[in-house]
Amino acid sequence: MSIHLYAACWNEERVVPFFLQHYEPLVDRIVIYDDRSTDRSVELLRASPKVEIRPFRRDAESYLDAHLTLFETCWQESRGCADWVCLVDLDEFLFQPDWHHYLAAQKDAGVTIIQALGYEMVSEIFPPAGAALADNLTRGYRDLHLDKTGLFAPDAIEKINHSVGRHRCAPVGRLVPADYCMQLRHYKTLGLDYLLARTHALAGRLTGDDRARGWSVHYLRDDDSIRAQFQEQLIQAEPVPSPRVTQPNKKPKRKPWWRRLSSALWR
To answer: CB 3.0-4.6 Å disulfide test: which of 26, 56, 112, 118 passes with 153?
Structure first.
């Protein structure tokens, strides 16, 4: 079973080691589109034999527009050579404790697309070097906004049709969904200092058009608002249970999630 991962990167040197530690044992190939990072991100990523670095070429001024366009097409090169593709940000950790067995079972059952249940993970301080985040930093809270379609079979999907941020999609193709036994653990709230610095850095990348469309305006919050939310997140956080491993549901009884969400795709 072959699994390819695609991600974009901009100045992520602090999370790159955790990202590699998590995904190197899980996937066979990692393709990173770097958007002119000025820190050590590329150097650290190149240390992995599984990583291929490519330039993030923009046809649009907006990073968010360009990101959306990239992830609509980059994975298509994995058709015919990968059983699964993962589309993630570097701080998004797809988590299933029996990863390879679970995905093999989904493939055998004919499942073609997997939605991960989203959790915002929370730490009071930035984790120490070498920490396996998904195994060791396990406090967080459920966040429906972080539910994402991060895993699918490239041969079965014609188009993924994500909205900005990949929070929703309206896929086209041979669609057989999995049970909800995959998590997306989002590691952005890694201590207040890191959260403040990363929020302000990302705010500086928003264009006037992004702001007019209301895209990622949460990055524009002032320090007091960020601190207040951080304290709320610490209060909300509790141990996140690991997803169970179940046999695939070959004939889903519920209306597929993309049918339920597609009507609101472009809100």
So the answer is: 112
| pLDDT number for residue 245 | 73
> DSSP readout, 143-193?
-GGG-EEEEE-TTTEEE--BPGGGS-B--EES--BPPS--EEEEEEEESHH
Q: Give me the CATH topology for the region 3-245.
A: Spore Coat Polysaccharide Biosynthesis Protein SpsA; Chain A (3.90.550)
pLDDT of residue 94: 98
Domain boundaries, the chain: 3-245
Q: What pLDDT, in 10s, does the model give residues 13-51?
A: 999 999 999 999 999 999 999 999 999 999 999 999 999
Q: What token pair was written down for 16?
A: 């790159």
Distances (CA, A) of 24 to 14, 21, 30, 162, 216: 17, 6, 8, 26, 29
Task: Determine the Cα–Cα distance for residues 167 and 25; give it in Å rounded to an integer.
Answer: 26
Tokens of 13: 């040197």
Kindly report the average pLDDT of the chain as a whole number: 88
Nearest to 27 by CA among 87, 76, 73: 87
CA angle, corner 128, sides to 125 and 129, nearest 5? 145
What pLDDT, in 10s, does the model give residues 150-186? 899 999 999 999 887 788 889 999 999 988 899 999 9
